[in-house]
Write a structure and sequence with these properties.
Structural class: alpha/beta
CATH superfamily of the largest domain: Glutaredoxin
Number of strands: 16
Radius of gyration: 30 Å
Shape: elongated
Mean pLDDT: 93
Distance between the termini: 60 Å
Oligomer: single chain
CATH topology of the largest domain: Glutaredoxin
CATH architecture of the largest domain: 3-Layer(aba) Sandwich
Length: about 475
């Protein structure tokens, strides 16, 4: 039994009596009595409370009818917690009996065509899985003995074909049942036979038809875990992990979905969240694209004006430092208050921007690695290290770590005196963007690293110091190939 996670408690009035004749979804569970039970609905991969009931002394209880737009996959959750799943769809009534000692194995569907189909299908899969596991063990035990393994492999392949044929048969024979549509959603798209020997052609077909088994106009598809799993796999494994490729693919997918629908909301929200939280360098470009394209009044209908403004501002903070863009110029002062510009004063082939805090524990560990890197690469590479502090502690940190590169910060007086800061900007010594570099470069934690090329184009960001050398070496190899 899978562990169940229930969130977002929002329940209807507790059914204080046993199952009523008026309840459309009725259950009787042996060895359960006088217990509170829950009905939970799937929304994506998670379960949310939908209704609550009280089982009587005979284990009987019932739930009120679900609204059509909420139909889909549900879980009946018993003390433990443990649960069994049901399909609620097409306005049909449900009557099920089972036993706490084996919820699924002893489950009987007395009424509900959807659940009869789902549980007969589950029983079929269980039987075939047992046969598959037996074949797998026999193949492993006879590895290297072709005379024995050849017929086993033939049976293994035939078993897969049997399962696929059965799945397609159920889908074809039950077009109006949501349980059959759910089976269809679980099927992989198969490229035509004539394309299967061409890996590139097969891949592009698979990518183009990836969601063919999903009715993107049916909001109920998000009320099962299947669409979420499909979307996660599509964005993170199926597509080439390139921001422009992913943005284009998302636009194509979202254009197939009706604006204002729950599928639209789910797809846009998850794709945006996925890009924002990605650990892959450069995916903030997808985040900015999603916000620019879909987070507008009337489109992002699930957000109020304040939340919409917040996410737009978040995208704006990232916009100036996307990979491939020229980095904003930084003009900050070194310990002798000489103002140094990243664009005018640094002529090296590469510039590493290192934002740090001398008191930050992680920064203290990374800085010696940066010094070691610089000593190996100086000449081709300049390091422009920006400290959040400007005091004696900062200067001692520079000396202790032998940071023999550009060490800059904002003069302490500019922090304390806004008029002085304004004079610095008006005199041309620095810029507003430089004095507000945390906002300009979206620095919300330290250390943070950028790699710029000789044109000050951002080539890498949000990486560890130990990655800098490998990235620069790779950039050099790319430049060499391009020049040949």
């Amino acid at each position: 039994m899978k562990k169940v996670f229930l969130i977002a408690l929002s329940v209807s009035v507790l059914h204080t009596l046993s199952a009523q004749k008026s309840d459309p979804y009725q259950f009787k569970v042996a060895n359960l009595k006088d217990s509170v039970v829950y009905l939970a609905n799937y929304y994506g991969e998670k379960l949310y409370y939908a209704d609550t009931a009280k089982a009587d002394k005979n284990g009987a209880f019932g739930f009120s009818r679900i609204k059509p737009e909420k139909e889909g996959k549900f879980a009946v959750v018993l003390p433990g917690p443990k649960y069994f799943e049901i399909v609620i769809a097409e306005g049909e009534n449900i009557k099920i009996e089972t036993d706490t000692t084996d919820l699924v194995g002893k489950l009987k569907v007395l009424e509900s065509e959807n659940n009869k189909l789902m549980y007969s299908y589950m029983a079929f899969l269980t039987a075939k899985r047992v046969e598959r596991d037996t074949l797998t063990k026999q193949l492993e035990a006879n590895d290297g003995n072709a005379a024995v393994t050849a017929p086993l492999k033939t049976r293994y392949n035939a078993l897969n074909d049997e399962v696929l044929a059965h799945q397609r048969k159920l889908v074809e024979e039950n077009p109006n049942l949501f349980a059959a549509r759910e089976i269809k959603m679980s099927l992989e798209v198969e490229p035509p036979v004539e394309l299967q020997d061409d890996r590139n052609a097969a891949y592009f077909y698979y990518k183009s038809h990836y969601f063919d088994n999903f009715d993107l106009q049916d909001d109920r598809i998000i009320n099962t875990p299947l669409y979420h799993a499909r979307l996660v796999n599509y964005l993170n494994k199926t597509l080439i992990q390139d921001p422009d490729t992913i943005s284009a693919a998302l636009d194509k997918l979202i254009n197939k979905i009706k604006p204002g629908s729950e599928v639209y909301k789910y797809t846009v929200h998850y794709a945006t969240y996925n890009a924002e939280t990605s650990k892959i360098m450069g995916m903030d470009k997808v985040f900015v694209h999603m916000v620019d394209t879909y987070y507008k009044p009337g489109l992002a209908f699930w957000l109020d004006d304040e939340k919409l403004k917040t996410i737009q501002e978040k995208a704006g903070a990232k916009r100036n430092t996307l990979i491939g863009k020229v980095a904003p110029e930084l003009i900050l002062a070194d310990s002798s208050e000489k103002w140094i510009s990243t664009h005018r004063d640094i002529k090296n082939k590469y510039t590493v921007l290192f934002f740090y805090d001398p008191d930050c524990g992680h920064c203290k560990k990374e800085t010696p690695k940066l010094v070691e890197f610089y000593n190996d690469y100086k000449g081709d590479v300049a390091v422009y290290a920006i400290s959040s502090d400007n005091d004696d502690k900062w200067r001692a940190f520079i000396r202790k770590n032998e940071m023999n590169f550009y060490n800059v910060s904002i003069p302490a007086k500019a922090y304390a005196d806004s008029e002085y800061a304004t004079k610095l900007i008006l005199s041309g010594k620095t810029t507003y963007e430089s004095l507000k570099y945390n906002d300009t470069f979206d620095i919300f934690s330290t250390p943070k690293v950028f790699i710029l090329d000789e044109k000050k184009v951002i080539r890498a960001k949000d990486i560890g110091v130990e990655q800098i050398a490998a990235i620069i070496d790779r950039l050099e190899e790319m430049n060499k190939v391009a020049s040949e």
